[in-house]
Hints:
Elements (H helix, E strand, L loop, with lengths): L7 H8 L7 H6 L17 H4 L7 H6 L11 E7 L10 H12 L2 E4 L12 E3 L6 E4 H9 L6 E8 L2 E3 L9 E4 L4 E5 L14 H22 L18 H6 L6 H11 L3 H15 L2 H15 L5
Parallel strand pairs: 1-2, 1-5, 4-6, 5-8
Antiparallel strand pairs: 3-4, 7-8
Helix pairs in contact: 5-7, 5-10, 10-11
Amino acid sequence: MAFQPPGPEERLEAIGPTAGLPAILRLALDPGTDFEPIPAPRTGDWLAAHPEPGQSFEEFIRSRPNRPDHPRNRVYLYPLGNFPLDKSPPVDFLKEYAEAFFGMGTQVMKPQTGSDPRFTTRINPFTRKRQILSTDVLNYLKSLLPGDAFCLLAITMEDLYPDPAWNFVFGQASLRERVGVFSFARYDPAFYGEGRGGKDRGILLKRSCKVLVHETGHMFSLAHCIYFRCVMNGSNHLQESDSRPQFLCPVCLRKLHSSIGFDIVLRYERLLKFYRQAGFGPEAQWAAKRLREISGGGRH
Protein backbone atom coordinates (compact mmCIF):
# COMPACT_ATOMS: atom_id res chain seq x y z
CA MET A 1 0.00 0.00 0.00
CA ALA A 2 1.32 3.43 -0.96
CA PHE A 3 2.22 5.83 1.83
CA GLN A 4 -0.34 8.53 2.59
CA PRO A 5 0.88 11.55 4.60
CA PRO A 6 -0.96 11.93 7.93
CA GLY A 7 -3.53 14.70 8.18
CA PRO A 8 -3.63 17.51 10.79
CA GLU A 9 -5.56 15.45 13.35
CA GLU A 10 -3.21 12.48 12.98
CA ARG A 11 -0.20 14.74 13.46
CA LEU A 12 -1.64 16.24 16.66
CA GLU A 13 -2.55 12.77 17.89
CA ALA A 14 1.05 11.69 17.30
CA ILE A 15 2.28 14.55 19.51
CA GLY A 16 -0.15 13.46 22.21
CA PRO A 17 -2.09 15.40 24.87
CA THR A 18 -0.15 18.38 26.24
CA ALA A 19 -2.68 19.97 28.62
CA GLY A 20 -0.88 18.84 31.77
CA LEU A 21 2.60 19.89 30.65
CA PRO A 22 4.51 23.03 31.73
CA ALA A 23 3.65 26.09 29.65
CA ILE A 24 7.10 26.32 28.02
CA LEU A 25 6.94 22.69 26.92
CA ARG A 26 3.41 23.09 25.56
CA LEU A 27 4.60 26.03 23.44
CA ALA A 28 7.60 24.03 22.21
CA LEU A 29 5.33 21.17 21.12
CA ASP A 30 2.84 23.41 19.29
CA PRO A 31 3.53 22.91 15.56
CA GLY A 32 2.25 26.36 14.62
CA THR A 33 3.73 27.41 11.29
CA ASP A 34 7.33 26.44 12.04
CA PHE A 35 6.97 22.76 11.16
CA GLU A 36 5.94 21.66 7.67
CA PRO A 37 3.87 18.49 7.28
CA ILE A 38 5.72 15.73 5.50
CA PRO A 39 4.89 15.77 1.77
CA ALA A 40 3.82 12.81 -0.33
CA PRO A 41 6.96 10.91 -1.39
CA ARG A 42 8.19 10.97 -4.95
CA THR A 43 9.40 7.92 -6.83
CA GLY A 44 12.65 6.78 -5.28
CA ASP A 45 12.06 8.53 -1.96
CA TRP A 46 12.30 6.64 1.33
CA LEU A 47 8.59 6.41 2.08
CA ALA A 48 7.80 5.38 -1.49
CA ALA A 49 10.10 2.38 -1.06
CA HIS A 50 9.44 1.85 2.66
CA PRO A 51 5.87 2.94 3.60
CA GLU A 52 6.50 2.96 7.35
CA PRO A 53 3.58 3.18 9.82
CA GLY A 54 5.22 5.83 12.00
CA GLN A 55 5.78 6.04 15.74
CA SER A 56 3.60 8.36 17.82
CA PHE A 57 4.75 9.67 21.20
CA GLU A 58 2.48 7.18 22.98
CA GLU A 59 3.83 4.30 20.88
CA PHE A 60 7.34 5.46 21.69
CA ILE A 61 6.61 5.36 25.44
CA ARG A 62 5.04 1.90 25.18
CA SER A 63 8.12 0.60 23.36
CA ARG A 64 10.21 0.99 26.55
CA PRO A 65 12.80 3.17 24.81
CA ASN A 66 16.47 3.43 25.61
CA ARG A 67 16.99 6.17 28.21
CA PRO A 68 20.14 7.60 29.77
CA ASP A 69 20.60 6.73 33.42
CA HIS A 70 23.36 6.65 36.01
CA PRO A 71 26.04 5.76 35.09
CA ARG A 72 25.15 5.37 31.37
CA ASN A 73 24.74 9.02 30.49
CA ARG A 74 27.43 9.92 27.97
CA VAL A 75 27.54 9.94 24.15
CA TYR A 76 30.75 8.57 22.63
CA LEU A 77 32.05 9.24 19.12
CA TYR A 78 34.56 6.80 17.64
CA PRO A 79 36.50 8.01 14.57
CA LEU A 80 37.09 4.99 12.35
CA GLY A 81 39.91 5.25 9.82
CA ASN A 82 41.50 8.42 8.47
CA PHE A 83 39.92 11.89 8.50
CA PRO A 84 41.78 14.02 5.91
CA LEU A 85 41.46 17.70 6.82
CA ASP A 86 40.47 18.77 3.31
CA LYS A 87 37.43 16.48 2.99
CA SER A 88 36.33 15.59 6.51
CA PRO A 89 34.25 17.32 9.17
CA PRO A 90 36.29 18.18 12.30
CA VAL A 91 35.50 15.62 14.98
CA ASP A 92 35.43 18.32 17.68
CA PHE A 93 32.85 20.20 15.60
CA LEU A 94 30.59 17.15 15.66
CA LYS A 95 31.18 16.71 19.39
CA GLU A 96 30.00 20.28 20.05
CA TYR A 97 26.88 19.76 17.96
CA ALA A 98 25.98 16.52 19.71
CA GLU A 99 26.31 18.23 23.09
CA ALA A 100 24.06 21.11 22.03
CA PHE A 101 21.48 18.88 20.33
CA PHE A 102 21.12 16.21 23.01
CA GLY A 103 22.14 18.19 26.10
CA MET A 104 24.42 15.35 27.20
CA GLY A 105 28.16 15.07 27.76
CA THR A 106 29.92 13.85 24.61
CA GLN A 107 33.38 12.34 24.40
CA VAL A 108 35.60 11.40 21.46
CA MET A 109 37.31 8.02 21.83
CA LYS A 110 40.88 7.50 20.67
CA PRO A 111 40.80 7.30 16.85
CA GLN A 112 41.65 4.12 15.04
CA THR A 113 43.70 4.60 11.87
CA GLY A 114 44.24 2.32 8.92
CA SER A 115 42.36 -0.76 7.78
CA ASP A 116 40.84 -3.20 10.25
CA PRO A 117 40.86 -6.89 9.22
CA ARG A 118 37.79 -7.59 11.34
CA PHE A 119 35.62 -5.83 8.78
CA THR A 120 34.38 -7.39 5.57
CA THR A 121 35.10 -5.14 2.58
CA ARG A 122 34.24 -5.07 -1.10
CA ILE A 123 34.70 -2.85 -4.16
CA ASN A 124 31.41 -1.22 -5.11
CA PRO A 125 30.57 -2.23 -8.71
CA PHE A 126 29.22 1.24 -9.55
CA THR A 127 31.70 3.61 -7.88
CA ARG A 128 34.73 1.27 -7.92
CA LYS A 129 35.44 2.47 -4.38
CA ARG A 130 36.08 0.36 -1.29
CA GLN A 131 33.22 -0.23 1.13
CA ILE A 132 33.00 -1.67 4.66
CA LEU A 133 30.17 -3.95 5.79
CA SER A 134 28.33 -1.83 8.36
CA THR A 135 27.02 -4.80 10.36
CA ASP A 136 30.63 -5.86 11.02
CA VAL A 137 31.29 -2.42 12.47
CA LEU A 138 28.22 -2.62 14.71
CA ASN A 139 29.33 -5.99 16.07
CA TYR A 140 32.82 -4.61 16.74
CA LEU A 141 31.47 -1.54 18.56
CA LYS A 142 29.54 -3.69 21.03
CA SER A 143 32.86 -4.85 22.48
CA LEU A 144 34.09 -1.25 22.87
CA LEU A 145 31.07 0.22 24.66
CA PRO A 146 32.38 2.07 27.78
CA GLY A 147 30.66 1.51 31.10
CA ASP A 148 29.37 5.10 31.28
CA ALA A 149 28.24 5.18 27.65
CA PHE A 150 24.63 5.69 26.75
CA CYS A 151 25.66 5.08 23.15
CA LEU A 152 28.72 4.70 20.95
CA LEU A 153 28.71 6.01 17.39
CA ALA A 154 31.47 5.28 14.88
CA ILE A 155 32.10 7.95 12.26
CA THR A 156 34.09 7.23 9.13
CA MET A 157 35.10 8.52 5.71
CA GLU A 158 34.81 4.96 4.35
CA ASP A 159 31.76 4.12 2.26
CA LEU A 160 29.40 1.57 3.86
CA TYR A 161 27.04 -1.20 2.75
CA PRO A 162 24.65 -3.15 5.04
CA ASP A 163 24.15 -6.27 2.94
CA PRO A 164 25.62 -7.71 -0.28
CA ALA A 165 22.32 -6.99 -2.05
CA TRP A 166 22.50 -3.25 -1.22
CA ASN A 167 24.43 -0.59 -3.12
CA PHE A 168 25.34 1.47 -0.04
CA VAL A 169 23.98 2.90 3.20
CA PHE A 170 24.61 6.34 4.74
CA GLY A 171 24.50 4.92 8.26
CA GLN A 172 23.14 2.14 10.41
CA ALA A 173 22.35 1.88 14.12
CA SER A 174 21.17 -0.77 16.54
CA LEU A 175 18.40 0.64 18.73
CA ARG A 176 18.79 -1.91 21.50
CA GLU A 177 22.56 -2.37 21.44
CA ARG A 178 23.16 1.41 21.56
CA VAL A 179 25.82 1.36 18.84
CA GLY A 180 25.82 2.89 15.39
CA VAL A 181 28.00 3.87 12.46
CA PHE A 182 27.67 6.41 9.70
CA SER A 183 29.79 7.48 6.78
CA PHE A 184 30.57 10.95 5.45
CA ALA A 185 31.99 9.54 2.20
CA ARG A 186 28.99 10.30 -0.01
CA TYR A 187 28.42 13.69 1.59
CA ASP A 188 31.66 14.94 0.03
CA PRO A 189 30.99 16.27 -3.53
CA ALA A 190 34.40 14.91 -4.56
CA PHE A 191 33.06 11.37 -4.02
CA TYR A 192 31.13 11.79 -7.27
CA GLY A 193 34.08 13.24 -9.15
CA GLU A 194 33.06 16.87 -8.69
CA GLY A 195 35.54 19.60 -7.89
CA ARG A 196 35.78 20.65 -4.27
CA GLY A 197 35.32 24.36 -3.50
CA GLY A 198 34.84 26.58 -0.49
CA LYS A 199 31.05 26.27 -0.63
CA ASP A 200 31.32 22.49 -0.49
CA ARG A 201 32.88 22.68 2.96
CA GLY A 202 29.70 24.18 4.39
CA ILE A 203 27.58 21.58 2.61
CA LEU A 204 29.66 18.76 4.08
CA LEU A 205 29.39 20.20 7.60
CA LYS A 206 25.61 20.53 7.40
CA ARG A 207 25.21 17.03 6.01
CA SER A 208 27.48 15.62 8.70
CA CYS A 209 25.50 17.28 11.48
CA LYS A 210 22.24 15.87 10.12
CA VAL A 211 23.40 12.30 9.87
CA LEU A 212 25.09 12.53 13.29
CA VAL A 213 21.90 13.43 15.15
CA HIS A 214 19.70 11.20 12.96
CA GLU A 215 21.70 8.07 13.74
CA THR A 216 22.11 9.02 17.39
CA GLY A 217 18.35 9.59 17.54
CA HIS A 218 17.84 5.96 16.60
CA MET A 219 19.85 4.98 19.67
CA PHE A 220 17.25 6.75 21.79
CA SER A 221 14.73 4.42 20.10
CA LEU A 222 13.34 7.13 17.85
CA ALA A 223 11.95 5.55 14.67
CA HIS A 224 11.79 7.40 11.36
CA CYS A 225 9.39 10.33 11.44
CA ILE A 226 6.43 10.30 9.03
CA TYR A 227 4.54 13.31 10.41
CA PHE A 228 6.53 16.47 9.71
CA ARG A 229 9.69 17.50 7.90
CA CYS A 230 12.14 16.41 10.55
CA VAL A 231 15.76 15.38 10.93
CA MET A 232 14.41 11.91 11.78
CA ASN A 233 12.81 11.50 8.32
CA GLY A 234 14.10 8.49 6.40
CA SER A 235 16.36 9.08 3.42
CA ASN A 236 16.84 6.98 0.31
CA HIS A 237 19.19 9.26 -1.63
CA LEU A 238 21.38 12.34 -1.17
CA GLN A 239 18.84 14.85 -2.48
CA GLU A 240 16.26 13.56 0.00
CA SER A 241 18.80 13.69 2.81
CA ASP A 242 19.64 17.30 1.94
CA SER A 243 15.95 18.23 2.06
CA ARG A 244 15.66 17.20 5.72
CA PRO A 245 15.87 20.05 8.23
CA GLN A 246 18.41 20.10 11.05
CA PHE A 247 15.74 20.13 13.76
CA LEU A 248 13.32 17.75 15.44
CA CYS A 249 9.59 18.09 14.85
CA PRO A 250 7.24 18.31 17.89
CA VAL A 251 6.60 14.55 17.89
CA CYS A 252 10.29 13.63 18.00
CA LEU A 253 11.22 16.53 20.28
CA ARG A 254 8.73 15.28 22.85
CA LYS A 255 10.18 11.77 22.63
CA LEU A 256 13.72 12.98 23.19
CA HIS A 257 12.72 15.38 25.97
CA SER A 258 10.89 12.61 27.81
CA SER A 259 14.07 10.53 27.83
CA ILE A 260 16.68 13.20 28.59
CA GLY A 261 14.72 15.92 30.41
CA PHE A 262 16.76 18.83 29.02
CA ASP A 263 15.75 22.46 29.48
CA ILE A 264 13.89 23.30 26.24
CA VAL A 265 14.89 26.98 26.16
CA LEU A 266 18.52 26.28 27.07
CA ARG A 267 18.72 23.63 24.35
CA TYR A 268 17.50 26.04 21.66
CA GLU A 269 19.88 28.72 22.97
CA ARG A 270 22.83 26.34 22.64
CA LEU A 271 21.73 25.29 19.16
CA LEU A 272 21.34 28.93 18.14
CA LYS A 273 24.87 29.69 19.35
CA PHE A 274 26.24 26.68 17.47
CA TYR A 275 24.44 27.56 14.23
CA ARG A 276 25.70 31.13 14.36
CA GLN A 277 29.28 30.09 15.02
CA ALA A 278 29.11 27.46 12.27
CA GLY A 279 27.68 29.91 9.74
CA PHE A 280 24.41 27.96 9.40
CA GLY A 281 22.32 31.05 8.59
CA PRO A 282 18.84 29.58 7.91
CA GLU A 283 19.13 27.23 10.88
CA ALA A 284 20.12 30.11 13.17
CA GLN A 285 17.14 32.16 11.98
CA TRP A 286 14.79 29.25 12.60
CA ALA A 287 16.16 28.58 16.11
CA ALA A 288 15.93 32.28 17.00
CA LYS A 289 12.30 32.38 15.86
CA ARG A 290 11.44 29.31 17.93
CA LEU A 291 13.09 30.85 20.98
CA ARG A 292 11.06 34.03 20.60
CA GLU A 293 7.84 32.05 20.34
CA ILE A 294 8.64 29.74 23.25
CA SER A 295 10.14 32.26 25.67
CA GLY A 296 7.93 35.21 24.70
CA GLY A 297 10.51 37.52 23.17
CA GLY A 298 13.94 38.30 24.55
CA ARG A 299 17.23 39.07 22.84
CA HIS A 300 17.29 36.17 20.37
